[in-house]
Amino acid sequence: MRYLLWMTLYQVFFMHKAIYHVVDEAVEYAKQAKGQGTANFVNAVLRRSIREKDGLALPADPVLRLSIEYSFPLWLVRRWHGRFGLEHVTALLDLLNRSPEFGLRVDVGRITGAAVKQRLACLGIDARDGRYVEGALCVDRIGPLLTDALFTTHLVRVQDETSQMAVLALAPSPGNLILDACAGQGTKTGQIRETSPGARIVAMDLDGEKLRTIGATAWLTQADATKNPFKKGRFDSILLDAPCSALGVVRKHPEIRWRRREGDIVRHGAMQREMVRALSGSLKPGGRLVYSVCSFEPEETLDVVNEFVEEGSLVLEKSLPAAADTPWFLSLPHVTGMDGFFIARLRKA
C-alpha cells in the first residue's frame, strides 16, 4: 500500500493526468487487494494530500528539507551541505535535477565544428561550442543524431567535454606508447588516436565484451588495473579514468543517487589508490599518468593524488589551461554547469 500511495501521489503531483481518475484507480486496486477498510484509508490519504498539497509543510531542518524537496538521500545532502554550505548545496541539487545537456566530440581532422553544427540544426538539435575543448559541442538532445551519417560514420561521438579534457591533459605525442588503463568501450582510446595518430596505444579493461567493441584502433588487453600485468618502465604515459562513485553524473543517471551508500565513496577511493600504485610502476622515468574520475568527492580526487605526491613517487603537474588557480582540474556542476569531474596529471619522479 505504501508503494501504491507513492506511485499515485507522484502522478497527482508531477504528471498531467486526471487527478480523480488516478485516485479512483488506486482506491479500486486497494479494495481488490486488501479490502474495503484499506481502500477507505488510501482514499482518505490521497484526497487530503490533494486538498493540502500546496500548503504541505516541509521540515524546519534545512538538510532534511532539501533532501525531501530535491529528492536526494539524506546522507548525501548532509555531506554536501557540510562541504559547500546552504546556498551552494541548494544550487547544486537544483542543477542536478535539471534535464542534462549532452557532449559531442567532433573529429576535427575530418570535419569542422561549424559544419557539424549546421547539420545538427537541420536535425532540430540546438548546439553550442564547448567551453574548453576545440571540437567539443553541447547539445540539448541526441536522439535524432543517432541514425544520422554524422554518428554512423564516427564523425561525431557522444562524449562529455570534461571527459575529452582528460585526453587533452595526457598530451600524447607521435611514437609514444600509451596505456588506456580502464578503456571500457574505447571512447577515450579513439580520442587519443584522433589527436595523435602516430601514438601506439594499448587499451586495457577487465570487461572483455567492452574491449571487443574497440576493434583494431589499439592493442587490447583484458586485465585488472589493480593487478597491473605490464613490466616496469614500459609506458610513456598512462590514462587512468578510474571506476568511481559517479556522483558527478547524477544529472544523466538519476538512479545513482539511490544506488550509492556513503561507504561506496571510501571503497572506491581505496581501489583507486590501488590502481595508481600498480600502474605507476609501468611508467618510464619522467612518464605521465593522468588520473580522472567523474566524481568531485575528496576521497576519490585530491585525497588519492595527494597520497602519492606526499610519498614523493609522483609529482603533480599543471595539466590544463582551464585549471586557472590549481594544478588539477575540478568541475563542480553548480559552478561550471558541466558534469562533476576531476583531472590530475602526475609525473613519475
Describe the structure.
The chain is built from 15 helices and twelve strands. The chain is an alpha/beta fold and 349 residues long. It folds into four domains: 2-55, no CATH class; 62-96, no CATH class; 102-158, Alpha-Beta Plaits (2-Layer Sandwich); 161-348, Vaccinia Virus protein VP39 (Rossmann fold, 3-Layer(aba) Sandwich), CATH 3.40.50.150. The strands form two sheets. Strands 5, 6, 7, 8, 9, 10, 11 and 12 form an eight-stranded mixed β-sheet that branches. Strands 2-3-1-4 form a four-stranded antiparallel β-sheet. The longest helix is centred in the last third of the chain and has 19 residues, at 262-280. The radius of gyration is 24 Å and the shape is globular. The model has no long low-confidence stretch (mean pLDDT 93).
Question: What tags apply to this protein structure?
Answer:
349 residues, alpha/beta, Alpha-Beta Plaits, 4-stranded antiparallel beta sheet, globular
Q: Measured on Cα atoms, how large is the radius of gyration?
A: 24 Å
* Residues in helix, %: 40-55%
> How many strand elements?
12
Q: State the separation between the terminal residues, measured CA to CA.
A: 62 Å
The fraction of residues in strands falls at 15-25%
The main sheet comes to: 8 strands, mixed
Number of domains: 4
Q: Tell me the name of the CATH class of the largest domain.
A: Alpha Beta
